[in-house]
Amino acid sequence: WGFCVRGQLKMVIPFLVRCFSTAKVKPHSVIKDISSNLLVSVSMGWNNSGISQQDLTNNLKRNGIIKSSRVEEVFASIDRKFFIPDVASATQSYEDKPQPIGYGATISAPLMHAICLEILAPYVTSKTRVLDVGSGSGYLPACFAFLNRPSGAVYGIDLLSELVVNSTRCIQQAVPDLAHRISLFAGDGFNGVPQHAPYDVIHVGASCKSIPEALFAQLKTGGCLLIPIGASGQEQTLTLVQKIEDGSMETQSVMSVIYSPMYTQAESSMQQQQLRTVEPSLHELTQQLSSLEGEVRNWQGAFKVQHGRVPRQLDMTSDSQMSEILSSIRVAKQRIKRKEAELLAGKSS
């Protein structure tokens, strides 16, 4: 699930100025600060990207997106690089934009993760039970598990079982000390995870036309739900929903956004079938790898002619063009390995 930043920037900016439309309750001060600072960040050209997780965190703090010490700590501690499997370069993980994580899904931009964490962090305590709908990469479940240490529980649900498997592995690699308190499930996000309800906090990482009844029903009295409401591909409203004592809801409009839509099980199956028809075959991936390795040999030959010696590893990694090619080779090998595993699993079944 992804918040569209650069591709839809011209569409998003006008929407942002219409923050805090009519709401039933007084806007939360944290939300007001975030929305005003988001406009500043946009005017600065989204200058949040970094070359490391700490650098990214520092930039988001400097630009007023990260405001609280708790969110700063969790952001600096949970490294995005573990949750983005195929990146061309090490620093790409820290760019302030959505990144593909496979199967047509994306990890949201760091900006949006920071905003959601700032909104929800005040509601997350050491014993809080959190549900992340559209858990995708697993990054936000890891962040919530960091926030509700030492005894809180975090649950996530995603339609794609492949993503659940990948994100579980990412969490175990990134935060092994937190992984035992995170449980991820494959299923329809509209239905939530009723077997572990009620939840103090529910985060929905994809847009819905209205608030799903099942998710609100699984919210504890006094709990809150953060969800983008609106039609797919159009202006949506990031909305904070709270369940009050009589079981009714109070809503706050936070800001205007554009999220990918949340799909039902049937819609997702159709979409994935379409994606599989255009995914490169093992033969095509092998050809890509062969082409990249040919570029390496050509570069090595040119280097030997120019310098009279065979290039060392340092020569190759210090050259920006060759460093990019080597990164692409690593990604290609990872994709081939994953494709081979998929084919082997298919034969076994």
Q: Give the helix tally.
A: 12
Shape descriptor reads elongated
Main structural class: alpha/beta
Report on the biggest sheet: 7 strands, mixed
Strand order of the largest sheet: 5-4-3-6-7-8-9
Radius of gyration: 22 Å
- N-to-C SSE series? HHHHEEHEHEHEEHEEEHHHH
Stretches where pLDDT is under 50 for at least 5 consecutive residues are 1-29, 36-45
Distance between the termini: 29 Å
Strand fraction equals: 15-25%
Q: Please give the share of residues in helix.
A: 40-55%
Mean pLDDT across every amino acid position: 82
Describe the structure.
- This protein has 349 residues and is an alpha/beta fold.
- The chain contains 12 helices and 9 strands.
- Strand 3 (129-133), helix 6 (139-147) and strand 4 (153-158) form a beta-alpha-beta unit.
- Helix 3 (53-62) runs antiparallel to helix 4 and helix 10 (282-307) packs antiparallel against helix 12.
- It is elongated.
- The chain starts with 8 loop residues before the first helix and ends with a helix.
Which helices and strands appear, and what pairs or packs with what?
Blueprint: H1 9-16, H2 29-43, H3 53-62, H4 69-77, E1 99-102, E2 105-107, H5 110-120, E3 129-133, H6 139-147, E4 153-158, H7 161-174, E5 182-186, E6 199-204, H8 213-217, E7 219-229, E8 236-243, E9 249-257, H9 265-276, H10 282-307, H11 313-318, H12 320-348
Parallel strand pairs: 3-4, 3-6, 4-5, 6-7
Antiparallel strand pairs: 1-2, 7-8, 8-9
Helix pairs in contact: 3-4, 10-12
